[in-house]
């Protein structure tokens, strides 16, 4: 009986030593997973996840502080990709953070704009061009559609315009074909 | 001139019925100038050209109406003289059926040329000539519509061999065949010109063995040319694909991601060579092309058509469809697509229009489940595994499809052609490809946004620091003297105020 | 001698396959077989743990338990030893393969309680193999496990694209596939002379 206890204690001691030593030796500094998460996020920098940008949200996910379903612009596909990366179960988008909208860009009605520069300060990607008391305009290519410029505008001259399908961004559709009764039977 | 006998056969391919003879009975005819020409700005691969005219302008034939924007772009010229009626969105001959910007010209029926300025290339040098070519509006007329000047100006690599693509392997299409029969003199002059612009030493014309008339014309005209040889390749679709033709001729396999120019080879289509010749020697920009109209058509033949001519004019001239089904295909039966509307203009890429034969209409074919016979793998000229690609594209496993080299697929349609289950395989690949491309684009946009956001955060931080520094400096600068002066001033103000209060109280 | 080792290998990989014949280690078999990539890394991790685990367990059994007549402590000590090995692997992985670490997620600690990992050392002790034999047995078991797991993951990846009836989608079809694979592996019993 005594021997058994001694053996177990000895075993525990050895294992404890090895593990303790390797936990110091293999200590991980930083978290490379943040970059991976950040790469999946859509980079709209909209803050709908209640973090001030995509990178902070990525950090919050990595530290387990935030859930994976708080990014409406990333949509269901984004949540799926995050779930796969993090090795957790997929869960539907948390609608308290907003719903997925079609991709759009901001548009400034240049007749109404008074040149207050408030939207320029709000834009997370510096996609608004203008100066004090001068008309402002959006650099369409750089706009992420985050809507952060909407609330500060004192004259409500900014609207969101959905990017419509055109000859350049058009995609081939999934081939659909009708099956006749004969074929349906075979299937 | 010599004829090279030995050829290198590529894997796969199909021997389809060519059905070319139906449209070669009559020579090339011209289509009259229509009242209105709708000229889309997007007729080539690359950037939309910059508009140079406005509504109401009067233009002459050959006048520049849109200038190439950047190097991957091509200019657009007025195909005839007239007035710019409007600039608006018009329907394009594109599978999307979506409208895009275009210019509508109201023809004055005079067809008056602008002053043609030929280019003396020997005098201004090769480089300047290639630059000038950018404003010719010439794009690959085989159907790909890739701006031609880009293929000319590869300074980094030396071109030894010019290959002229005269294979024209798709069934029904005969526009190159007819061009060679009727304009082979222009073609040979063009070959000499392009050869010297490229600095190539020899030229090989690759032609399929189903064009004996064109071949004899070429043989006749190249008799005295030692550096031009002709290689007759067997009629196997897709021998006209650039990399396939190079292999057939030289036995060189161009690996994925490489250009033929890195191997000292450059390839042009016959019609493109003639267009380059006409531009440099006569100053005529790209204004028209030869288009085949064939298939289910009363009078199938080849027409020379101005760009912007309504397709309807072409259809009416050829007598319309034999069996009415209102389905038209742009391009050949293998690679072409169903036109969403016939209310479109003729463009630079429109080498052929087919009245759809009943068996070409997709809805009539009933796809059955894949039986894994692997006939498609045998037929694939790129040696891919079409059945695997189909499996992954069908179930939206795009990453997997990419692992199976989806982007090496040339969409030749051999797999769909041989499929005993009638599965529209290429449609699935196109779908998967465009999904992936839009994913890549989104990724690129996200990267730009990330970079800009990071820069903004850095900038704000920098500005904050600079402001703090400035404030600190200012504080340090204000000397003690100034400070005591300030204190005195304040004291004086306070005592003055106290005095006023006292006086006020006295008055009371 | 060599023949003996070869025999152990073949029998553990094919005839007495740990997953499909002994029905051990089903948790990762169903859980980590959705993607081929993850299954390969899981196999590698399990193979590592199994080989090292069976060797250390042999040493403890041989030098500590048997001389002291403590064979009844086998299960207990083996669990502790294997848990330690897994812990060690986990730390190693977190340091050098962080993506793999995240990808395996919960399944890495689960190796600890993986019955295959405990089963092999116990079977080893039962058969009273020597050190090299136990190593071969452990490695063979790991190869068998990896083999089946990778096969199954590839099959499941293909299943994604298949027209599976609505009621059978997901785990149901996976179970059926596993059952069919198990049936197929029964055929290897014929190898046994």
Which labels suit this protein?
heterotrimer, B: 508 residues, alpha/beta, Fumarate Reductase Iron-sulfur Protein, Chain B, domain 2, 2 domains, 6-stranded mixed beta sheet, 5-stranded parallel beta sheet, 14 helices, 18 strands, C: 193 residues, mainly alpha, 9 helices, globular
Plain-language structure description:
- The complex is a heterotrimer of chains A (187), B (508) and C (193).
- Chain A contains 6 helices and 4 strands; from the N terminus they run ααααβαβββα.
- By secondary structure, chain A is mainly alpha-helical.
- Among the domains of chain A are: 65 residues, Electron transport complex subunit B, putative Fe-S cluster (3-methyladenine DNA Glycosylase II, Chain A, domain 3); 65 residues, Alpha-Beta Plaits (2-Layer Sandwich).
- In chain A, helix 2 crosses helix 3.
- The C terminus of chain A is likely disordered.
- The radius of gyration of chain B is 32 Å and the shape is elongated.
- Chain B has 508 residues and is of the alpha/beta class.
- In chain B, a hairpin with a 5-residue loop joins strand 14 and strand 15.
- Chain B contains 14 helices and 18 strands.
- A 6-stranded mixed β-sheet of chain B has the order 2-15-14-18-16-17, covered by helices on one side.
- Helices cover 36% and strands 17% of the residues of chain B.
- Chain C has one domain.
- Chain C has 9 helices and no strands.
- The chains are: A mainly alpha (187), B alpha/beta (508), C mainly alpha (193).
- The interface between B and C is small, with 7 and 6 residues.
